[in-house]
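To whoever is covering the structure queue this week,

Two jobs came back overnight. Logging them here so there's a record in the thread.

Job A:
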Amino acid sequence: MLSVKYFGAVAEKTKVQGENIPFSNLSLQELVDELEQKYDLGSLSYSIAVNQKIVQDTNGYMLISNDIVALLPPFAGG
């Protein structure tokens, strides 16, 4: 099982704050592609974290059971 959490505009678009997804040997990119199609997220800008660490290369990242994936709004710095 994977836990997916949504924040900011992504949570507004999905109308949920998170969901559990049955684990089936996915890459992070495959999961993101499925979520973008399911919720029509293509127009949104967001970062992706797995187990509280930002992941830049979603193609090369293989998920494992019990991972927590978060779709986060863009960060503003100061």
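Job B:
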Amino acid sequence: MSSSTSDPTSAPDVAPDSGQRPLRILIGCDTFAPDINGAARFAERLAAGLVQRGHDVHVSAPNQAYRRTTPRTEVIEGEPMTLHRLPSVRWLPHDWLRFVWPWRAKHYARKVLDRVQPDVVHIQSHIVIGRGLARIAHQRGIPVIATNHVMAENILDHSVFPDFINLPIIKLAWADAARTLKLTRAVTTPTRRAADFLEKTIDLTGVIPVSCGIDRTQYFPVIGPRERNRLIFVGRLTAEKEIEVILHAMTKLDPALETTFDIVGGGDQRKKLEHLAHDLGLDEQVVFHGRTTDEELRALLSRASVFTIASIAELQSIATMEAMASALPIVAANAVALPHLVHDGENGYLFEPGNADALAARLTDVLTADRAEFERMQQASLDGVVIHDINRTLDTFEALYRDEPLPE
């Protein structure tokens, strides 16, 4: 990622891919590069894809320090866009999370909207930055699209507070979310299940499921058996990912399989997981790669035998889609949105969340499959990820921005 000063009002006269006037789009995010998480990655790819289609893209996101900055060009996913970084503070219990003071959100929204004068605002969160932008944009008659990446269930599952504190806070938070989302032209979320959940949680109808999408051409599927049995997980090393379940499952695999496990990503649980791997006698089998470049990640995916994910808090899982685009069978927890991607017995298997014995059994099914069965699962992953192509996602959001009928 690089940066330089630029004229934030510059834009091409015609969007080259559509023949229509390009739009000036303001994307509001509470998490964005250099953060590494699903919501940030989606916003980055969305913004980059819109730039590729000729639109003038601006992003309002937290700065990496509590200081004011002028708008500047940053290169995200290989594409230049204008970033409006807002003063933010770090949430100390978390290893990377930063946030803008909520009582300053409307003030910053006014300043950014004054500067950008967007055709449409697309918020990625109803929490702080998105909340402020939605309210001020609505006052000014600027259409707002909202994408929800948050499920209250995830917060409750991992809160350190008792229910008598959690429940009133969550109730108030969803009430505020409802007020924000009702100011929008359209609300989207990555899956049908997440859309149903949101409609049931707040008094809202017509939530549109739109996949986060990936660019399948950036991955290198290799059909056929592997020389070695290699498991891989990609994602943040946080408690809700339940990576310890995979480590325990490793100890239950037949030693004759000589299975290794690549863990790609950083997070606050890394040291704990390293200690657990040592205590389980897995030092020679498990490699913690930390954060890698995109090129390194794609190489690791291409050589792996199976992608495994034990998470109980996935709203969609871009990492799983990346693995599918790399032609990997998937073994995943039967939780939240993962069953939307993993069809049991087709492109892999589902297992009961938290059950290391069940996970080991399903991993064994993949690792001991004959060549024809293994390649069938690989092809099923490739076939299944087609509907998540980023161009379908971009087509849908362009239609929403222009208030046009949605594509099929």
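Note for Job B: The radius of gyration is 22 Å.

Please reply-all if you pick these up so we don't duplicate work.
Q.
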